[in-house]
Amino acid sequence: MKNVDLIIRNTEILTMDPDFSVFNPGAIAISGTSILAVGLETEILSDYSSSSVIDGKGKIMMPGFVNAHTHVPMTLLRGLADDLRLDVWLMGYMMPVEREFVSPDFVNLGTRLACAEMIRSGITSFADMYYFEEEVAKATAEIGMRAVCSQTVLKFPTPDSQFFEESLEMSRDFISRWKNHDLIVPSVAPHAPYTCTAEILHASAALAAEFDVPLHTHLAETSVEVENMRRENRMPVIPYVKKQNLFDAKVLAAHCVHVDDGEIHTLHHAGAGVAHNPSSNLKLSSGVAPIKRMLEVGLNVGIGTDGPASNNDLDMFEEMRLTSFLQKGFSGDPTALPARTTLLMATRLGAQAMHIGHLTGSLERGKRADLILIDVNPLHNSPRFRHDPNGSYAQIVYASKATDVQDVMVNGKWLMRDQQLLGLDEENLLKLSREYARKIDQFLIKRESSVLSKLVAIGGTEEEESFEIQLKVRIDDPKPLINKLNNSTIEIIRKRHYREFDLYFFFADIEQGILRYREDEFINDLGKIEQVRSRLTLIGPTSEDKFEQEVLLSRSRYLAPATQSPRFYREYFKPQFEKEIEKDRVRYLVRYKDVEFFINFDHITTPTIGHFVEVKSRTWSRQDAEMKSHLITELIEFLGADLEEATSDDYIEMVR
Amino acid sequence: MKNVDLIIRNTEILTMDPDFSVFNPGAIAISGTSILAVGLETEILSDYSSSSVIDGKGKIMMPGFVNAHTHVPMTLLRGLADDLRLDVWLMGYMMPVEREFVSPDFVNLGTRLACAEMIRSGITSFADMYYFEEEVAKATAEIGMRAVCSQTVLKFPTPDSQFFEESLEMSRDFISRWKNHDLIVPSVAPHAPYTCTAEILHASAALAAEFDVPLHTHLAETSVEVENMRRENRMPVIPYVKKQNLFDAKVLAAHCVHVDDGEIHTLHHAGAGVAHNPSSNLKLSSGVAPIKRMLEVGLNVGIGTDGPASNNDLDMFEEMRLTSFLQKGFSGDPTALPARTTLLMATRLGAQAMHIGHLTGSLERGKRADLILIDVNPLHNSPRFRHDPNGSYAQIVYASKATDVQDVMVNGKWLMRDQQLLGLDEENLLKLSREYARKIDQFLIKRESSVLSKLVAIGGTEEEESFEIQLKVRIDDPKPLINKLNNSTIEIIRKRHYREFDLYFFFADIEQGILRYREDEFINDLGKIEQVRSRLTLIGPTSEDKFEQEVLLSRSRYLAPATQSPRFYREYFKPQFEKEIEKDRVRYLVRYKDVEFFINFDHITTPTIGHFVEVKSRTWSRQDAEMKSHLITELIEFLGADLEEATSDDYIEMVR
Hints:
The structure is a homodimer of 656-residue chains.
Chain A: E1 2-3, E2 6-14, E3 22-31, E4 34-40, H1 41-47, E5 48-49, E6 53-55, E7 59-63, E8 65-70, H2 86-101, H3 104-120, E9 123-130, H4 133-143, E10 146-153, H5 164-178, E11 184-190, H6 198-211, E12 214-219, H7 223-233, H8 237-243, E13 250-255, H9 261-269, E14 273-276, H10 278-283, H11 291-297, E15 300-303, H12 316-331, H13 339-353, E16 371-375, H14 391-399, E17 405-410, E18 413-417, E19 420-421, H15 426-447, H16 451-457, E20 462-475, H17 479-484, E21 490-506, E22 514-523, E23 529-539, E24 543-547, E25 550-561, H18 566-573, E26 577-592, E27 595-606, E28 610-618, H19 622-639, E29 646-647, H20 651-654
Parallel strand pairs in A: 1-5, 2-6, 2-7, 8-9, 9-10, 10-11, 12-13, 13-14, 14-15
Antiparallel strand pairs in A: 2-3, 3-4, 7-16, 16-17, 17-18, 18-19, 20-25, 20-28, 20-29, 21-22, 21-26, 22-23, 23-25, 24-25, 26-27, 27-28
Helix pairs in contact in A: 3-4, 3-15, 5-6, 12-13, 13-14
């Protein structure tokens, strides 16, 4: 008779172990953080005793749910904006609000709010991806939940870093300090192939492999992502990330909606886990992932809620139900994804997908005591039938609600008893979150009267965050400079000739930015107009850094196709005043010393302010910007322009 | 200052009226069963006073949900069987259990259990379709909910009637007595085009039109239904039912998953309502209805839970969420079915689809006081944003749970206050329902060891409930009889020739029925075998009625394609003993006096028991059976067989 810390007895236990063992009435013996034994009550009670014995009568005990993909601090943005196109939602609402409000405090509070909600609905482990991820880890560890916490890396500026080098450095530091935590598995999250450079993917994989921690990312979420990938790299998403050595790391890939059979096998061979997010995939119109096929191939597929801003809650019961229903509905086979399989995804397979299957996901000897008790006898789940051994799985997946969860334990410690959260002050969390909501409301109400929101409101804008290093020099005649381009040190990749008609709208509040209506007339080699394109660009306030002569401009732009007339936009946006610029532009894309540059030879015809040469290059890092700044000076001097004539003014600033 | 029975004040009111009026803070004045006024609190309080004023602080008030299609007594079958093919689920589980257990008491208890669950989740009105529908009406009226109660009519025997004439008579009686009830709208429910004859559809429509009550039915639920309809009637489902004059009545059509644009317009012109059941349609693999298009055309589309046996609960929050998500996910447009539209479907449009829109579905002066109050500030729905006027709709559709409903009023009477049901003894309901579950479990556990369940377990069975009127006569030589067929009074529609090899399995328990393995060899005009088909038939115990010489046989058969060898079935079913019969059969389908008959000329070769002629016809009603019985005798005599040689034995009974 071995004495243990705790015995829970007289309950139906769904272990979710590889044999799907069910013990009824069952019991579990827990010592410290771990499960010492689980089995039939008679056997457990004959081998173990404890001064603490709990009766689980009328409840089902099972492993806690594993939320395999989420962005928990976004609880604070729940319901901020719904029923919008992904770009409008993301670029028009989420990212501007995140830029304004996301701070360590925001992340910490959002995590605590999310943990309270997740504990209430029976979640014991989750895989998170956000900014200031250390705050997620801190709050989660303090509350006592288990999580894979992934620090986001992006090629764009984020709320926690201006350049990706900083995010990577933050990730390394975070991982090295949290590596051996009992509850937290630190991780790095290159956001997605289309929001990361190849370099970021390589570096992230190397970092995760070095510390043997998971790498968390979004893969193949939308068909547009796959189409773009095929066009730009002539391959689908999974082979592309494989080529960037992503699978050197233990990958947790969220979504995988648009993957083919070969890609599923690649993921399987790579030992990658997949997080399926059915609510988010439908709500954002991404599609339905081929889960049935993934499971047949043997992939570890977990279920995630995704962030509460696109769901709008953290309820694994809703996700399970939807997972089963969608696979049945779209395979034409109502036996697809039976309840037991779906519950397995929501527990053990999810833990395996997160690469923490050795710790949690099933009730087995030696695993951590991460478990929940569910009341399966409420009105909405009555009566209960016993004739079918799978009936209990079906009850939980098809009829139980998050509010039926009674008790939650993580790592041997109770986080909820009889629906009372232990150690979390819900009233205070709600109060603090209401304060954030009030401030965000104020921000948005103010912004709703802004040019950007009006631009968003007329549809289809996409944001472009650009960092450009550029140098502009006034010249008398472009011909001698153009002749200089015919030189072996400069490779001309492309040349285009066009006329640009720009109409600028200025607003009383300069923070609103400047709205440009542009018509581009492309002129072919015969001097004929080949194509006309119209678009709107809202140019945000520009921040400048000087590098020698050159200027590093970082600015955000919102682009939208201009389907209406200039008159329409004038009436719609009601600018304070307008300016017009018309120019003839010959644009070269060249390669010089292995770097690509645009060289524009501009002749400003309205107003008549003469000729200019402009050399530009995109950049994503500070180090890169410095290197390019040297090359631009070299190029300008080589072409023979006079650096004394350099100007940092935009054309629009030269116009009275 | 007018005095009223009740004022509810200081709450955000979503009226769901045609202007989508929102009052915040709003108030409502109620007198008797009806809404006297709804508006801004300041206005209502200056016009009305009451000794009973309730503060709705922190809650949203809205019309109660309208569950536009369900089978409420099936709460007692919730979770009985899941993850099965529709035919196995329906024919193997639901129908056998219903045949055994459905009684007025079952229906009454199931309705009360369902009403308790529906009130808890904020449903105030529902459209039901079941057997013993008067019991649904009685229980619902007693509890105080509003419902359209539809008595089912089928061409098969049902738990409440043997022939459809009885069901129609029950419906007429039920409708005439409940016609002017304050809460119940009685109605008739021809189950579906494929489970009703054209005659039943005509008669049901005429009945509903005569009393001006709704007609409730299932239309175009599965693609198989549409394919069969096209094959048999050369048109899709909606034109077919139109041809049967169905739209003479006010139709409520459940499902309409597989309808084209023309059919949507037909439904619209007919003033028919549609009930969308997304959970059921996915769970049973039926598909996704084109709701977005239906709404564009202007159809009244409500949302239903369908029966709790295929859902598995009665939760309109789950259905709303799924309705929005599915239309977004499958239109490729995340702005499709925004929350406000979905909430409209779940309230006013649903009431209009049920043809009770003049009574309920929105909070407007003159409508009945059917309303609910929801707590929109729980943890899983915090924080709240105010900047977007549609934010409250999104909160309810995307993040609220059924358990957030606080108060429910129907017809001016509170049914739930502060989550306490008034006038329903939940504990007793649960106790009684557990007793039914125990009995059904016993029945199924016993049956699970039966031949039928084993047949079901190996897949794809379909049930055929047949009523046949037949006469069999021993003859010496078929030739003279066959020659007689060439006569102007008999039209030969089809002739087939085949050899049949039958293997019969007999079991110790004769209630198990007899299992037949049959190979049919079709023989073409050249005497060659053209096609071979193998199938299993489990022949249930036969009930017989004598009509003159003829026998009316009613029996249930379960058919399954036989994909395995006779050896496999022998080992799998372990019969007590077997019999073999081999025969040569020439089968004519003829028309005689406007009625179709099968005439079989059988030569039994193993064992050698000689020649027989058999005349058969299907029948669906007793009156029809009597008429056909006369014609069969005439036919047999006309062919020249000796009625003295008539036998009511099956061939199998003639074999030692």
